[in-house]
Each structure stands twice: as C-alpha cells, then as structure tokens.
Design brief:
heterodimer, A: two-stranded antiparallel sheet, B: mainly alpha, 13 helices, 70% helix, binds protoporphyrin IX containing FE
Chain lengths: 236, 250
C-alpha cells in the first residue's frame, strides 16, 4: 500500500464531460480487475428480487424458531448471589476460556487488541494481497521458520497448560507440516493444502482455535471453570 | 413480464400520475428506466445500477452480508417495539421482562425474536467476515471497506453485549460483571474506563441506564452510519470480489 508504484490510475474523469469512474489497477495482482467482467445484470430487478427473497426466507426462519424456542430469563439480579460459573455471553466465552489460563492483562486486553489490530492490517500487507503459496519460494528456509514458530508456540502454551489452545494448534500445525511438498516432487498433501498462502494458514488457525475455545467455554465448563461433560448433571 | 392480471394492474398503477410523483418514473421496462429505478431512489441509489452475474451467484457471498443487514433491520423493528414496554430502571426492568411474558400480548414472541436475531447477527457477521477473507474480498481496492467491516464487527459485538444487561436478571448481571472486570486489567486507564462505562464501581442502576442509552441510541446510530458507508464503498470500489474458481471459469 505504501509504494506508489503498486497502482496505476486510469485518468479521464472530467465530470463535466462524459463522467467516467477512475479504476485503480494493481500492477502485480490485478487478475480480478483485468479479467473479463463477463455478463452483467441490471440491479433492478435482479438484485432487488434476490435480496427480497433472502429477506423473506430469513424472516420466516426467524419466526419459526422464535415460536419454538424461548429467550432465557433467570431470577432478578442479585449482587450477593454469585452463580458458579458466572459466564459471559457465548461470543465472549472464548476469551473467558483464555482468562482461565493467562493473566487478565494478557487474555483480556493484549490478545483481543492484537486480534483487532491484526484484522485491520490484513489488507495493507502485500503478502496477504498476492496470496502466493507458502511453499512456492525457498521452501526449506520457510520450513525452518515454521518449525521454530510452532515450537515456540507449543512451549509457551505448554508452560501455561493452555491445552484447549494447544490441541487445535497441534491439528493446524500438523496439517501445515504435512502440506510441505515432499522432496521427490510427489504431491502427497494434495494441491489444496500445498498451495495455500500464509494468510490462509494464520486465519484458519485463528478460526479453529476461536471455535474450540468458544465451544469448550459454552458446553464443557462447570463450577470453578472445571471440565464437565455437557450430558452430566453439572451441565447447563 | 406483465402477463398475469396482477402484473397488468400493477403496470397500470405504475403509469398513473400519483405513482410517478412518488417514484419519479413509470414502469421499468427498459434498461434506462431500470437504471432510474436504482439511482432515482434515495434508498436504492447506494446500490450499483448493474452488477456482474458472477457476483450474484449464491456461492459468491451466501448472502451473508445481506443477512447481517436484514437481521439488523429485524432487530431495529423488534427493538423499537420492546422499548414501548421497557423502563431502564432497577428493578422495574426485570418486572418488564415478566410483564412481557405474562401480560403483553405476544410479548414472549417479541422478546424471543429480538434475542434470537441478536445471536444470529453476531454469527452472521463473523461468518460474513471469514467468507470475505477466504474469497480475498479485502484486496485492493477493497482495503478500507474491510476496515469499515472491522468497525461493524466491534459495533455488533458491543450492541449485543450492552443489550445483554437490559433484562436485569442473574444472567445479565453476572455476564456484565465478569466482562467489565476484565477492563480493570487494562494498564493505567482500566479502573477509570470501567467507572465511566458503569457510571460507578459496581454494575448498578447507573450502569443499566448507560447500557440502555448505548444500546438503543448511540450504537444503532453508529451502526447505521457505518453500514451506509460499507454499502456505498462496495459500489464505489467497483463491485464485489468474485471467488477465484468462478473468475476462471464461466
Ligand atoms: C453489520 C455488519 C455488516 C454488514 C451489514 C455487512 C454487509 C455487507 C454486504 C451486504 C456486503 C455485500 C456482499 C456480501 O454479502 O458479502 C458486504 C461486503 C463486504 N464486507 Fe461486509 N458487512 C458487515 C460486516 C463486515 C465485517 C465484519 C467485515 C470484515 C472485517 C466486512 C467486510 C466486507 C468487505 C471487505 C466486503 C466487500 C467484499 C468483496 O469485495 O467481495 N463486512 N458487506
């Protein structure tokens, strides 16, 4: 994003004449823009109709579920009666699970801030934009970096005994190593995993960890944040 | 298009002076009038006049962004209705929940719909973000719309979280207590930020009032503004990113 040379602007946008839209084209990664646009459809009626149908399907589904399921309501709020466990809404239970392992400053402030900052900067790094396969250049050197990173991650997570983070990390890390092209040139890992860019791996790791933590926090945590099985009497 | 009696009637209606005075056009039979239907309408002009067929295929978006928006609409409507029966005061707020269940006609249904749509919106927005990521929808010239999206994600989470306190039951009280305790872990400012958010050191009636104002006024207004920018940017950025497979094939 910083180097000017990444972009070329089509000029000729004198609005007083024939108004034209300026099209920004990336030199290196403009497959999207350069390619044939293909068939186009008028928004009215084609988009309007589809959106209207989507809206109707959504409302029908919502009404059906709202008829069958009841919103929870517990006793009146009582500051003197702490439920055990006191749980946040489900979308924050991943964070609460992290708080179980890491100090509040790390789990409650630093990690969420890093996630938000990480999301914001995604489109401003050329690696993410070019999306070249991770193993396409200098595979041996990258393998060393990957192994070192994974090892550091596993050590930190083990020290904190954060095993609900560790397990999904093992799974994704394992797949990542497995996707390394075999020296014989035989693509044992298949085209799909082998051709994923680094951004794909990081995001997939993030999603799998977040999902695991949220599910564990929602269904497998009981009094004192101890492990319970959802079907045991402690659950819910 | 106009073959059935219903369509013929509709077309005749669209030719009346009254209809034209509202919509600034007659029936949309030509591409020119179809374009007018979009950019001559204050609400629709945020959309592009024409779109790529490939970006309309279901797998291009799974309509996840649309569903996020529609859920926001459902939440605004059910939310306004809920406000008619709600007082942001303790313990009246909790009694209002009981009244919704036992006194107000269809009160249970109304509350169910709002709560359900709230959960669904959080899910839809996350899913939309991940789907946009995997199809490379953040790439130039869409970078800034991705950033606008991150703001919308935070707004959605904060909307959902502030609404969580409003029923003033045990679930609400302790979820907010647990959540806001985390803020105290923030270095230097933690205690002050928490105090400002709660209007005190504990989750009490000031916190309820603040969360109510955030939930019903401040955050929805911000969300409307950012959603408008989000949609407008899609058009200005030249339409949606098409999944790679579809881009290659026809
Ligand atoms: C209230 C929340 C949101 C609403 C109502 C919303 C709505 C939409 C809609 C209707 C579209 C059109 C196509 C589609 O459905 O994918 C879209 C596209 C897009 N959204 Fe969102 N969105 C929201 C949140 C987000 C978030 C959290 C992100 C990412 C961080 C995001 C990033 C984008 C981007 C980059 C595009 C353009 C994608 C492309 O070029 O293919 N949006 N959004």
């Amino acid at each position: 994003m910083s180097e000017k040379t990444d972009y070329e602007a089509g000029l000729g946008s004198n609005a007083l004449k024939n108004p034209q839209r300026i099209v920004f084209i990336t030199k290196k990664t403009s497959a999207k823009v350069k390619g044939d646009v293909g068939k186009q459809l008028m928004s009215y009626p084609h988009v309007i109709l589809r959106e209207a149908i989507a809206f109707q399907l959504l409302v029908i589904a919502m009404v059906l579920v709202a008829l069958l399921w009841d919103a929870p309501l517990e006793q009146l709020a009582n500051p003197l009666l702490t439920p055990n466990p006191a749980k946040a809404p489900w979308y924050f239970l991943g964070l609460q699970e992290l708080l179980h392992y890491f100090p509040p400053l790390v789990a409650g402030i630093i990690i969420p801030t890093l996630v938000v900052v990480g999301l914001i900067v995604i489109p401003y790094f050329n690696v993410n934009i070019q999306g070249k396969p991770l193993w396409a250049t200098n595979p041996a050197g990258r393998l060393r970096v990957v192994i070192a990173t994974l090892a550091a991650l596993v050590i930190v997570l083990s020290v904190f005994r954060a095993w609900t983070v560790l397990v999904p990390t093992f799974v994704i890390g394992g797949l990542l190593l497995f996707s390394y092209p075999a020296p014989s040139g035989d693509r044992n890992s298949g085209q799909f995993l082998g051709s994923r860019p680094i951004s794909w791996w990081v995001m997939t790791w993030f999603i799998v960890v977040a999902l695991t933590l949220t599910l564990v926090g929602t269904f497998f945590r009981g009094p004192g944040w101890s492990w319970v099985w959802p079907w045991s009497s402690h659950g819910a | 298009m106009s073959t059935t009696p219903f369509n013929q009637t509709l077309d005749r209606l669209r030719d009346t002076r009254f209809w034209k005075s509202i919509f600034r056009r007659g029936p949309a039979r030509t591409n020119r009038t179809r374009s007018l239907a979009i950019f001559g309408n204050i609400f629709l002009h945020i959309l592009p006049v024409k779109v790529r067929e490939k970006s309309l295929r279901a797998r291009a978006t799974y309509y996840l962004g649309s569903f996020s928006f529609f859920l926001f609409v459902v939440l605004s409507i059910t939310g306004a209705l809920l406000m008619l029966y709600y007082h942001p005061a303790t313990p009246q707020a909790y009694r209002d929940m009981k009244d919704l269940r036992f006194v107000v006609s269809n009160g249970v249904f109304l509350r169910n719909l709002h709560r359900l749509a709230a959960q669904a919106m959080v899910l839809a927005v996350f899913w939309h973000m991940f789907h946009v990521f995997y199809r490379g929808g953040y790439r130039p010239p869409h970078e800034f719309n991705w950033v606008v999206g991150v703001v919308l994600l935070l707004l959605t989470l904060f909307l959902s979280y502030t609404g969580y306190l409003l029923p003033w039951d045990q679930l609400a009280f302790w979820a907010i207590t647990v959540g806001t305790n985390i803020i105290s872990a923030m270095p230097v400012l933690g205690k002050q930020v928490r105090f400002q958010l709660l209007g005190g050191n504990l989750v009490g009636e000031n916190a309820l009032l603040r969360f109510y104002v955030l939930h019903c006024v401040v955050l929805p207004l911000l969300a409307v503004v950012f959603i408008a920018v989000h949609f407008w940017r899609i058009q200005k950025d030249g339409g949606l990113t098409v999944p790679e497979d579809d881009e290659r094939k026809n």
